[in-house]
Amino acid sequence: MSSNIIWFYLCLLLIFNVIYITHELGETRTTVKVGALFFSGEDAQELAFDEAIRQLNNQKLFELQFETIKRYVPNDDDSYVLQQLTCELLAEEVIALFGPSSKTTSDIVALIANNAGIPHIQYDWNIEIDLEQRKLNHQMSVSVAPSLQTMSRAYMDIIRKDFKWKKFMLLYETPQGLARIQDLMNLATVERDFIKIRNIADYQDDVRVLWKEVEEDFHEQRLIMDCEPASLVPLLNQAKEFRLLGPFRNWFLTNLDTHSSGLQMANNPDFTSNITSVRLKVVNPNPFERKKTRITEIDQILGNQTMLPILMFDAVILFANAARNIIASDREYIAPSGRCDAEDSFPWVLGKYIVGEMKTISEDDVEPPFKTENMKIDEYGLRSDFNLEIYKPTINEPLASWSPDGEILSAKRDPIGTTSSAAAAAVQDFAQTTRTFKVVTHIEEPYFMLKPDAENLRGDDKYHGYAVDLIQKLSEMMEFDYEFVIVKTNGKFNPVTKEWDGIMRALIDHRAQIGICDLTITQLRRKYVDFTVPFMQLGISILYYKPEPEVKDMFAFLQPFANEVWMYVILTQLVMTLAFVFMARISQHEWSNPNPLEEDPSELENVWRTRNAGWLMIGSIMQQGCDILPRGAPMRILTGMWWFFSLMMLNSYTANLAAVLTSNKVKPSIESLDDLIGQNEIKFGTLEGGSTSLFFSESNETNYHKAWNQMKSFEPSAFTKSNKEGVDRVIKGEGNYAFLMETTSLTYNTERHCELQQIGEQIGEKHYGLAVPLGSDYRTNLSVSILKLSETNVLYEMRDRWWKRHNVSCGDDEADVVVDGDELSLMELGGVFLVLVGGILAAIIIGLIEFLWNVQQVAVTEKVTPGEAFKAELIFALKFWITKKPNRISTITTNNGDNASRVSRSTSRRSSSQSKQSKQSKQSKQSKHSKHSKLSKRSKRSKRSRSRSRSHSKSRSKKYSTEC
After folding, report:
1. What is the mean pLDDT of the chain?
2. What's the pTM?
3. 797 CB contacts (<8 Å, ≥6 apart)?
């Protein structure tokens, strides 16, 4: 019983102590009053104000107790009424004034607070005044809203560093919005020659006029718009009618309350453009904090990150913590005088100290914590530090965050951010659907061509070529659809109007997203469009006409000498033959004993008849010699001179033969650009307004600049409207016109036109690339895909497919490959073979004639039929193994014949022959009786000497043969 009583008294004592301590603490807390000005309809700001005060008063250890006094401002923005309400609050001895919002255009509250020494805390945008004026008349004003100057710098960082936009259009609705984007105006002025900016308020009667102007006049794809959240959805719905929300359009919404505009609810499949916005980045909630089971209205307001309510909350927390630090450190609290008239009262002493503390306080020193990240007030009372969250308002998905140091971190790398939210996961992002690229190009072989059966096809199936294959490969890798837009040219630049046409114009106007053809990457074009990495490397060369080669002469071996030379050679040989015969007959040394066995021959013999002399002449000129040679001095001199003549003629023929036989090889009249410049007969030009003409016109190299001046001077103009026109002009000119063009197109045409050829080496180095509008976000993906195609050899295979020859034969290509070589073809030496064949045929014909003549003589002599004689002679001729021929055909006939008949037949032939000889001898004796004895003696002596000189004749023959 006693123990229970003891525990009861201990509990009473504990309860008494708690009540006492609580009472003492309540007595030590200083009660202060704060005033706030609200316009009607600002319920969210008022709830945030009350919530902040409630949380402060619930802090048990907080030294201050806050009492709120509110005044409501009519919406007519009357500065006199605003002054009266402010003075009423000062009369209530408030130590701070909150508001009003930016709906007022007067700074009367700031001026009154400055004179009274009362801290004035702003939480909404205000057009910033001059800093010198702020030092004088706004010393007690502090703004927790981001300064317009810093906001403008933040937007510039996002556009320049993250988006990498170089060209855009600015749209604003309010003066505050214009102030937020003023630095973007300066950025655009540096990057572009002009700036496109429009005030949406100027189109209140019909905003569709604005959107039509944006689409049709400016052709702008990147829009930066600052408008009130309530106006955003209606504005975008009207812009949708002009296809401004389609794919490849980019919107950047700069209002910090864009997420509260209801755009997420209005999101539909028509919103396929890339819409991005920013908002103040809030502090992530403590994961260990106890979650509320009941979500109140103010919890929803603060959780939606609406700018004014959360800034109102932060403004109260900032002031309360600064006031606590100053008032709690003072020994005696002195309330304000409560007078609005500054002439009869002094400014509140503690006011300037509280403002100074607000400028130095850290976010780590406040309790409860701020709602927004990175709260920092500068010396002018403006918020200089804050963090922005870049997000997609259509699905409320964070993308990145911006910090005051200019760094932009992706949401995936943000240690305190999240990559997505439950709301974003539940809303479909229609901007991520498969996009259809419009690919602009023009008809040019082999890049983009119509199929032979294009009339029977529809859509993009009608086209084929290198560009079609490349786009198809890229679409498969990047998963996009495409459709072709055909224009006339790549694009020519007008230096007067500063405008482009062709592919360049379509890309600049955003009527297409990709430009592809033989589009060269140049510095001038890069000012207006962006290029991917090159997909083809090339240069410049000369396209020229290749004349047909001369018909090769089968008797080209006769060309070293002129026709008259050959005639004189033949005539000289005939004359020399006759002269040789004549000189031999008058020369005593050329007469010899026909029978060496006779010492005193009655007759001498001269071997230099016409046939032997002619054979010596032919053998000498053919460098083959002869088996008999002259012996007398005059004859030897004559023979030596003929040999000298033959040597000179043969060496001259040999020296000129190779040059003559290769002289019909086709060589162009020009071989380089220097040859073109150094002559006036052949005109040359290039594509008008193309990259090749730009190369020559802007080159500082002497020859190139000289070539450009010559091209401009030609009449009629040497420039063409297209490459095809240049190729046709070369073909029709047949050597009177040369076309300077890129090597890729040149190679394609020379492969398909046998009458064309490339002259000279490659000039310069150029590259083809895909062109896209400036700042296109898909350019990097296109470049990466092109590199992959190059590494996998796909680009080479595509080029080989479209550049190699298709069903075109230029004849004997191998013979035309080596133009400057010394090789001789069979056609050029065919005459030599014909001469050989002709000689063989002549010899065979003469041999057959002699054979038939001999058959006839045998048939007559041996009294057989011509058929038997022909058969016997032919059989013997075909028996190659028999080396000795019988004197009579009786031994040639078959062995089974009658020997007696052959003997009698031969006997009769001999008797007839003897009878003929006896008759002839008798007649000879009668006619030449006086000379008979003398001839018979000479004959006998000849027979005796013939046997003696046989051996000498053989040795003499060998000697003559050696000398020959």
Report:
1. 80
2. 0.64
3. none
